[in-house]
Amino acid sequence: MTRLWSWLALIVGLLYFFVPLIATVEFSLRMERGRYSFRAYEVVLSDPRFQQTFLYSTVMAFCTILMGVLIVVPTAYWVRLKLPRLRPVVEFVTLLPLVIPPIVVVFGYIRLYNTSSLLPLTGSLTGTNFLLLMGYTVLALPYMYRAVDTGLRSIDVATLTEAAQSLGAGWITILWRVILPNVLVAVLSGAFLTFAIVIGEFVLAALLNRPAFGPYMQLLGANRAYEPAALAVIAFGITWACMGLIQLVTRFSRHTRIKR
User: Where are the bilayer-spanning segments (predicted)?
Assistant: First the structure.
């Protein structure tokens, strides 16, 4: 009986997940009356705004990943090595972006860094892009930190550090040539999640008036019918591609460890 209920719950969950997706895909193929076609996808992919916004968000995603690695990896490493008592505090801080709405974050940025403040970052495109980058880094912090912390748990940080120090390595060398290669799979997992978050984010980019992919999706959805469905399918495919890459990297890492 328990097995029956388990299968029933699984079937209900799959239907709840796949039925809207199938309906969206089917609707996106009906742009031309009387037959199915990929016309909506052709229109979206050939739109210069799609190319511009997707390229912008992709560049911002890679910058966010780099910034997240530079902040999270040394912090998680140092907390695990020297400050284990502060782990609950650091974990609490990294969870705050899941509690604080992005609209609060961006209004705080605008209020603090507007053109009349001591550090007027919103007065230039470079400054506004930097604010958006910092906002994305904050939003991705819980996922990047959890991934890196999980990777650090799987290795003996203290022993690796002592061995590297006995060979004369400095802290930067230890981080770059010892710790980072051992948690590379965890970093890649956090990176793929970060990429998916940045590509679909709307609030920060819209309120900072930047040409990102999220506001473009919203603008297209407000003025078209079939193209937004095609764009939603494309965005969904990008997200699931990131999830699939995480699984492939994890399996490859486990397979390599087993061989060793």
Answer: 6-29, 54-77, 89-110, 122-145, 183-208, 228-250
When computed from its CA atoms, the radius of gyration of the chain, rounded to whole angstroms, is: 22
Q: Each residue of 220-245: pLDDT tens digit?
A: 877 777 888 888 888 888 878 877 77
**Residue 79's CB: how many other CB atoms inside 10 A?**
19
**How far apart, in whole angstroms, are the C-alpha atoms of residue 90 and residue 76?**
9
Per DSSP, helices labelled H in 82-124 are 87-99, 102-112
Cβ–Cβ < 8 Å for 200, 239: yes
CA-based nearest residue to 20, from 229, 213, 224: 229
Provide the CATH number for the domain formed by 47-253 in this structure.
1.10.3720.10
Six-digit token pair at 169?
């390595």
DSSP string computed for 18-63: HHHHHHHHHHHT-SSTTS--SHHHHHHHH-HHHHHHHHHHHHHHHH
Q: In sequence order, which residues have a C-beta less than 8 Å from that of residue 197 and are 6 or more positions away?
A: 136, 139, 140, 143
Question: In which band, very low, low, confident or very high, does the pLDDT at 71 lie, cut at 50, 70 and 90?
Answer: very high
Q: Tokens standing for 166?
A: 């006995």
Dump pLDDT digits (tens) for 174-203: 888 888 888 888 888 888 889 888 988 889
